[in-house]
Amino acid sequence: MATLIIRLNQNTVGTQPALNFNDSPTVTFEVSNNPATQAVDVKATATVAGTTTLDGMFGLIQAVTDTTYTLMVRAAYAGAITAVGTRMGAGTCTVEVRINGTPLGGSSNSATSTYSEQAHATDNVFAVDDIITMVITASAASPADLDFVLKMVRIL
To answer: Using one digit for the tens of pLDDT, what is the confidence trace for 67-112?
Structure first.
């Protein structure tokens, strides 16, 4: 019988940030037997509550009309929407993303045939079970094919 000792230190490994033990990380281990090498593979994953990871949402609305679309009925995680990008295949419209009915801080998107992105730093944080909607207004000139992207961070 062999004893396996795993030591975690605060060094940077690869492109991962240094692990700060003062932040009380949660460390999980996956252990598997590798018959080909007769070794035990151990994968350690550390997360710290309150840290973030990049996320996003994107979509296409083919028949664009002035209406409200629900993007998340009940958010499964907490996060923040940092930017909204839009582009139209034809026509124009205004796109406003809301959290529980409150518009994101900053400007709405004026969607045209050229991709544009609006950054949002205020009124952009959502919690578990919040509702995220996208309100389309001022659609004109036979609007069609609205591509959109929400750039987000998940709060772990």
So the answer is: 999 999 999 889 999 999 999 999 999 999 999 999 999 999 999 9
Radius of gyration of the chain (CA): 22
Answer whether 0.70 is exceeded by the pTM: no
Query: Rounded to a whole number, what is the distance in angstroms from the first to the last CA of the chain?
Result: 38
Residue range(s) in the chain whose domain bears CATH number 2.60.120.220: 52-155
DSSP per-residue string spanning 12-74? --TTSPPP-GGG--EEEEEEEEETTTTEEEEEEEEE-TT-EEEEEEEEEEEE--S-EEEEESS
Q: Tell me the CATH architecture of domain 52-155.
A: Sandwich (2.60)
DSSP 16: S
Between CA 142 and CA 90 the distance in angstroms is 7
Coil vs helix vs strand at 147: strand
Residue 81 contacts residue 153 (beta carbons within 8 Å): no
Q: Which amino acid belongs to residue 53?
A: T
